[in-house]
Amino acid sequence: MMNARDLLPEPPQSDELFVTFANTLEFTNGIPTDHVAEPAALLAWLKENGLISERGRAGESARLHRDPREGERRMERFRYLRNLVHAIADRVNDGHPPTRDQVRDLNHILRHGLHYHQLVSEADGARYSVSQVGDHLDQARATIASSLANFLAQDDPHRLHTCANEGCREIFIDRSPTGRRRWCDMRVCGNRAKVARHRSRARGLPAKANAH
Ligand SMILES: [Zn+2]
Fold it and tell me: Per the structure, how many domains does the chain have?
């Protein structure tokens, strides 16, 4: 019998923001699907993840619709960050720290999320106010980048992995005691590797851990 609990939505995933963002590019047997390929999809994702208000989403949507070239430029900036997250995760997965260039690129994106104070003159005096370096979208992008920077600096980077299934490459954080899980999902990618190993054993061939 169905009880009320069965009707509840899935609990929100506790993954870090940069992980959720990186996995908007999903691979199935090595074939990519970009879940935020259009400005509308990206803006909806940013709204869903609390990185932009509904007003901000609507405003940016109208702006990028009016100016498709600007839309493409802004999409490219997010894709750049996503590639950077994947590249850094690959490095960390292989037991290395991010390269100097990767750190420079990440810091460059972080700078667009800076706030600064300034004095604003007004008719009856002056106001001390907070301003932003980047606009809505740069701020959102910097927030994603800062989730990665925080993780690398303060969490356990060795828990960050890229799925060992070459056709999947999903990014995940393994919070188990050892933190050494190799597959994003034991039942899907892990099982596939096990089946492949079993098959090669049956044929008398050497096992291939990453077969898919
Ligand atoms: Zn996987």
Answer: 1
